């Protein structure tokens, strides 16, 4: 005869009484990370200078997205669509990164070329003119690479403005001339301006100065009558030429006359070394 003890619960019989096994949590982290990195990478790729950031984020987004898709296929994750979108945005970021790199490299190359061009350009191209600087015509111009100009040389300025200074010739000022000192010699030069550009050139700001001798003594400009000392005025139209004569007072023993020409505020000064 069996006895049952009250107050005690008998153990469950058989395997059906075991507790259920808990489900594993979804591993969606890589898919979300791929989406975030892909969005940031694509936005960065829209700015060419940030090509490097777009490239790094694009690689990470593509890798995380592909791994996230793999987890979703194995049932370890539930955000397959998000992971796929992140991988696609990663690929877009890589494409934008390459485009940005090409744009940046081309921009840098263009900037370097412009800087090199600016450094290589001189204020005035130097040419040797075989003709005289008068209305009788000029000879063929050939490139000259010296630092200064000689008689008959032509300087070409911005805007295709050409200036030529002739060889100095001695002359005798009249008794009413201003700027000539007794005992000194007087020399005159012919200056020619040719406008080979497309816009008119204002000659009102054209100035010329001279120094004579080894010591570089200031050579006073001589104003003599209606022709010497008046200089240029008005504008020189495209395709036109203007000529003026200048006279300078130099010591009797001077062997050279250095003439400095300034076509205006926007042009560099240049010097012609003339033998007397």
UniProtKB/TrEMBL annotation:
Positions of the UniProt region annotated as Disordered: 1-22, 123-145
Pfam family, one: DUF4190
InterPro entries documented for this protein: DUF4190 (IPR025241), DUF4352 (IPR029051), Immunoprotect_excell_Ig-like (IPR029050)
This protein's UniProt keywords: Membrane, Signal, Transmembrane, Transmembrane helix
Composition bias type Pro residues, residue spans: 9-22
Regions crossing the membrane: 49-69, 81-103
Domain DUF4352: 155-269
Domain (DUF4190): residue spans on this chain: 30-99
Gene3D superfamilies with a match to the protein in the record: 2.60.40.1240
UniProt name for this protein: DUF4352 domain-containing protein
Organism: Streptomyces poonensis
UniProt lineage: Bacteria, Bacillati, Actinomycetota, Actinomycetes, Kitasatosporales
């Amino acid at each position: 005869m069996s006895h049952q003890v009250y107050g005690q619960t008998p153990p469950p019989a058989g395997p059906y009484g075991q507790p259920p096994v808990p489900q594993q949590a979804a591993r969606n982290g890589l898919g979300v990370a791929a989406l975030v990195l892909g969005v940031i990478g694509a936005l960065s790729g829209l700015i060419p200078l940030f090509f490097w950031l777009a490239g790094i984020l694009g690689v990470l987004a593509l890798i995380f997205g592909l791994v996230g898709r793999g987890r979703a296929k194995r049932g370890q994750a539930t955000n397959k669509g998000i992971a796929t979108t992140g991988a696609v945005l990663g690929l877009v970021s890589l494409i934008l990164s390459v485009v940005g790199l090409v744009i940046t490299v081309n921009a840098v190359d263009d900037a370097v070329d412009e800087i090199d061009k600016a450094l290589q350009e001189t204020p005035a191209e130097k040419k040797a003119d075989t003709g005289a600087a008068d209305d009788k015509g000029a000879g063929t111009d050939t490139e000259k690479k010296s630092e200064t100009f000689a008689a008959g040389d032509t300087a070409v300025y911005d805007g295709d403005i050409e200036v030529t200074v002739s060889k100095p010739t001695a002359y005798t000022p009249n008794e009413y001339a201003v700027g000539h000192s007794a005992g000194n010699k007087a020399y005159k030069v012919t200056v020619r301006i040719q406008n080979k550009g497309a816009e008119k050139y204002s000659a009102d700001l054209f100035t010329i100065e001279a120094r004579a001798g080894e010591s570089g003594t200031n050579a006073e400009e001589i104003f003599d009558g209606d022709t010497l000392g008046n200089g240029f005025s008005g504008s020189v139209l495209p395709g036109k030429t203007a000529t003026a004569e200048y006279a300078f007072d130099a010591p009797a023993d001077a062997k050279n006359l250095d003439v400095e020409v300034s076509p205006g505020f926007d042009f560099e000064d240049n010097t012609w070394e003339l033998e007397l």
